[in-house]
Amino acid sequence: RPSGIPGGDENVEYGSHDAMWENNIADDYSGGFSVQPEFRSASGVNNRYYGNITYGEYSGWYTQARGNSIDVMTRDTYLENFVAINVNPYPAVYLRDAKNTRCVNCTIIGGSSSGVATDQQRGYSGDGAPTTYLTNVLAVNNGDTGFSITGQAAWAITYSHAYNNGTNYSPYDSHVTNSISIDPQLGACRVFIPDSSPMKHAGKNGADIGANILYAYENGTLTNKPLWN
Fold first, then answer.
1. CB–CB of 225/118 below 8 Å?
2. Largest distance between two CA atoms of the chain
3. Is 0.90 topped by the overall pTM?
């Protein structure tokens, strides 16, 4: 690991496929969650993350292609109710040459770089046509950009919210729809949206904008079992 960076390499996952990660907290590692295909077909495909938290990491959720074909791209990743807090120095959710990544009801707070960032690497670019879709995502108080999108064949940011970032959206164009920019009034809350927040019921189909990590997931289904006292 780089000198001065706490923890190990990646906390959760590396080259898995068809995996499900539920109710985890990654704290003070070099990387919280990561998928990097291991130079073979389907090694980074169809991974799902439910109700996970990353705090104080070098990177929060990171992926990159490992060659120049679709077989070595991270594909069909789904994140739901994901929280990243105080990630430094890389973007909290950093998608490099990933195809069909979907982040739904995610909260990203207080990173030194961008909340969500996409780009293409030099040398390794998969099939050259990555895609990203963000719904009900909240990016607040990030030092660089709330949402930074480059190099995508297709992308959309819908019913999402960026507030008090260095730049809220880059770019801000027709790919960004039904989005607002006001103080989310989270107070001391970080892992759920309080009832008094204007993000409550402001998302797609009346859902909240941002993550709620209050109850446990089991086999991809949200239960009524509380996670906290």
1. no
2. 48
3. yes
